[in-house]
Design brief:
This protein is α+β, with helices and mostly antiparallel strands. 27% of the residues lie in helices and 42% in strands. It has one domain. It has a five-stranded antiparallel beta sheet with strand order 1-2-3-4-5, covered by helices on one side.
């Protein structure tokens, strides 16, 4: 079951962050509803860029963690 965890903005674009499985998230660019890739919130971070450069997906994942859009970030804030 997917659950939207929030939005992040990176380099002028907004991305919807959705949890697809525990610890795994997908990023979808809102302007064209394009899935740009998936990432894992647990170290080591795993990325699967689909429609963007891997470096952009890294920035999206870091923004999601910084803004507490992933479960890993929520857990890290409580400890």
């Amino acid at each position: 079951m997917s659950m939207i965890t929030g939005m992040v903005q990176v380099l002028g674009n907004t991305y919807r962050i959705t949890r697809v499985t525990p610890g795994t998230y997908e990023a979808v660019r809102l302007s064209d509803d394009l899935r740009v890739g998936t990432f894992s919130s647990r170290p080591p971070m795993r990325l699967a860029a689909e429609a963007c450069a891997e470096s952009l997906l890294v920035e999206i994942a870091h923004a999601a963690r910084r803004q507490a859009r992933t479960s890993w970030a929520r857990l890290a804030k409580t400890t």
